[in-house]
Amino acid sequence: MGLQALRGTTDLLPDDLLRWSRVEHVARRLARLYGYQELRTPLIEDASLFLRSVGETTDIVQKEMFRFADRGGHEIVLRPEGTAAIVRAYLEHALHKTEGFVKWFYLGPMFRAERPQAGRYRQFHQYGVEAIGSSSAWVDVEVIVLCLAILRDCGVVKTTLWLSSMGCRDDQTQFAARLRLKLLPVRSKLCQTCQGRFDRNVFRVLDCKSPDCQAIVADLMASERGLRPGSFESLCESCLLHFDEVRQELRNAKIVFDDTKFFARGLDYYTRTVFEVRAEGLGAQDAVAAGGRYDHLVEDLGGPSVGAVGFAAGIERVLLAAGHQAQPLPAASRRGVYLAVTQSDLLGQGFQFLQQLRERGASGTMDYDSKSLKAQLREADKAHCRFVAILGASEMSQRAITLKDMEQGSQETIAFDAFVETLVQRTNASPSCH
Ligand SMILES: [Zn+2]
Ligand SMILES: [Zn+2]
Q1: Nearest to 312 by CA among 63, 31, 76
Q2: I need a labelling partner for 157 at 20 to 30 A (CA). Which of 73, 130, 347, 423 fits?
Q3: pLDDT digits (tens, 9 = 90+) for 166-220
């Protein structure tokens, strides 16, 4: 058998990238519109970063990280998510001292050793934003509004926003104690992993993927309405106030949300506002985008006590959801120039024209293998070129090029002197092939 891409990874061919680039372009454009600047962090990080942020008892850290020792024996991890590394960068470059509040946007691959399934890969891709250095409820609102705006412009229209609050650390400690009390009678029925987590981090039972644990959690949530993060009984006065503010401003911004659903975020660092956007066409387990506040993470990683909030969206899932809902994209319009040369001794002249066009910003391509004119016209069609410029013996003798406009179906002859200028002007509106 020939060589194949690793399980859970995939090649993105040029046709795939047409759809991908659109998502990336929309995300980047809207993030800038809201004042978020792009940053990039390395794909590999020190393992301890994720142990200290995502949490040692989470599924991500226990089961899903690609973790290995480098030649010097350092524990390295292929980043499983974006937030921890971004907070590390914020602190490493001392932005808490020079900038205070930053609004950042990122885009790139993440890695998790999950069982591959529809829309889930071992190398998957996310875009996301992080606003670090503020505890204002307005930032929560801005991040949620931006998250929904990007999805909408990517063609993911039928979405539901689930909103909740995890409360502060005090709230979480009290909530954990109540949860332990309720789970104690069924402790022996929990999966092996959860029995181990029971004392150290009982929250992880809530997002355990084992069917037994999920059934127990579902029963518990049905019988104890007050017993879930985000329920009014589990929040202190100040967290409830923050949550009320977020909800009120979302309503004012005409954002519809559902704050009655129970959902657990599989990372330890979340506090206060958490949200998930569910899209039609994805499995019941799958959010297309998710995020929330992480008010202790900067401090936990050695910085000052400042609030922060962000979200991440999976590009594969956005495309999957858009595929179910999006109106078909308008047919790609023809662009650029294909320079067809009918005999090999004219390659030099053809290449010169092509370079002049490219230097003036008009995109173009040509055949270097002396294919037949018919084959070259086929290639031009496949590449969606708007113009085909034909250079043959008769053209050379007349010092004029035959120009076909593939969109209009017209043909004309243009003198060598006027050729480049004419093409630059005509391709100006749609400067590149494809
Ligand atoms: Zn609180
Ligand atoms: Zn479990």
Answers
A1: 31
A2: 130
A3: 899 999 888 888 889 989 999 999 998 888 888 888 888 888 888 999 899 888 8
* Structural class in CATH, domain 337-426: alpha beta
Q: What distance in angstroms lies between residue 115's CA and the mean position of ligand 2's atoms?
A: 17
**Ligand nearest to the CA of residue 195, numbered in listed order:** 2
Residue 94 region by backbone torsions, left for phi larger than 0, else alpha for psi between -120 and 50, else beta: left
| Ligand 1 centroid, distance to 291 Cα (angstroms) | 19
The pTM assigned to this predicted structure is: 0.87
Q: How many CA atoms lie within 13 Å of 41's alpha carbon, on the beta-carbon side? A: 25
Residue 304 CA, ligand 2 centroid: distance in Å: 35
Does the domain at 14-168+236-325 match CATH 3.30.70.1450? Answer given as no
Ligand 2 centre distance from Cα of residue 120 (Å): 21
Provide the residue ranges of all domains of the chain, joining segments of one domain with +. Answer: 14-168+236-325, 337-426
**Cα-to-centroid distance, 86 and ligand 1 (Å):** 25
Residues of the chain with pLDDT under 70: 1, 118-119, 225-232, 284-285, 324-332, 429-434
